[in-house]
Amino acid sequence: MAEILIEKMRKEFAKGGTVAVNELTLHIKDGELMVLLGPSGCGKTTTLNCIAGLERPSSGRIYFNGKDVTNLPPHLRNIAMVFQSSLLYPHLSGRRNIEMSLRKSRLPKDEIQARVQKAASLLKIEPLLDKLPSEMSGGERQRVATAKAIVREPEAFLMDEPLANLDAALRESLRPELVNLQETLGVTMVFVTHDQVEAMTMGDRIAVMNNGNLQQVGPPEEVYNSPANLFVAGFVGSPPMNFFSGRLARTEGGFDFIYKELQVELSGRILENAAKLGETEIVLGVRPQHLRLCRSVQSGALEARVFGIERLGKEFIIIMEHEGDARLKAIVPPDFTTKPGEIVYITAKSEQVFLFDPKTEKNIAFM
Ligand code: ATP
To answer: Residue 26 to residues 6, 35, 62, 154, 364: CA-CA distances in angstroms?
Structure first.
């Protein structure tokens, strides 16, 4: 299977035009499931297309198992792609569609049949083999398209938002199936998505991109627990992290973070990092599950007005407004009772916050 190395790759569609991918260096290990995650237009598909050979990088190199494939056409790269809308021939049955990808392989008939059968069994699509695409649901079509990709026994799977057109329940059930399939086959997979839940649940590692630039690469829990910068912190996690633009203030024992009435006494590692910066402007980030709400006024707590409540059963999301600032979101247990218009008081604990430099936007733990 393929180890893929992208080295200083840049892609501009026209000279002086949009830089879709900027100096991207990324090492995808043999047998790894790497997710490219980022908002629309950040360069995910362009990166995937360059790996596939459908686009040629403006500069930089791409290597498969150490071999330079930058200028190789797609059919010489031994990769298979699955797209958002599966490309099945409408007049052919599931079986014939799957066989089509082996058409030029000159494999004996028995071998073709054996491969189709194996793929059908792995993807549990035996009942679809004799159906036409028009007789299949969206999820079934994506399964057949995936079978079509795996029968070729490629060195790498490139998947471009393959679950995006499916409903939420189907997406949820197909995610672990794709991960199991990738593990069973031991094949390298590059999976493009803008859905951070998909990325978190599927990736061995996630490469977060924004505006053509790689922001951070790491296992999902590392990206979540140690976001490298404000963009990653705000993009990974749902509901997103809350941010407060305040300052570090020296105290007798160390440093506090201060934003209006909100005062967080810093301790441990974050205090050590803050002490290196001294008194300065800083952005504090708190995940919604770590914002502490209370109903009575407290020293060091920020006053906010409840705007709405999303009742999710096992927990509630409280949406708050604070003097026209961006909305804040807190996840609370369902026994926290409040209603829109009520005033609540917000605090946070040092061990559950992140600090970011407002100029470089970097997490100060990385500085
Ligand atoms: P999406 O999730 O919406 O598909 P993406 O992250 O995959 O977005 P790309 O499709 O790679 O992003 O696009 C990156 C940038 O390159 C965008 O600004 C896009 O407009 C531009 N771009 C992509 N393809 C072309 C093209 N063929 N010609 C000109 N510009 C392009």
So the answer is: 5, 11, 10, 20, 24
Tell me, what's the pLDDT at 124? 85
Of 46, 161, 192, which is best to mutate to test ligand 1, by the most ligand atoms within 8 angstroms of its C-beta? 46
Minimum CA distance residue for ligand 1 atom 2: 40
Span 215-261, pLDDT tens digits:
999 999 999 999 999 999 999 999 999 999 999 999 998 999 999 99
Residues 6+ apart with CB under 8 A from 298: 345, 347
Q: What pTM was computed for the model?
A: 0.92
How far is it, in rounded angstroms, from Cα 243 to Cα 358? Answer: 11
What is the Cα–Cα distance from 27 to 20, expressed in whole angstroms? Answer: 19
What per-residue confidence (pLDDT) applies to 195? 93
Query: If you take atom 9 of ligand 1, which residue's CA is the nearest one?
Result: 43
* Residue 11 Cβ < 6 Å to ligand 1: no
Spans in the chain with pLDDT lower than 70: 1, 324-325
What residue owns the CA closest to ligand 1's atom 21?
Answer: 20
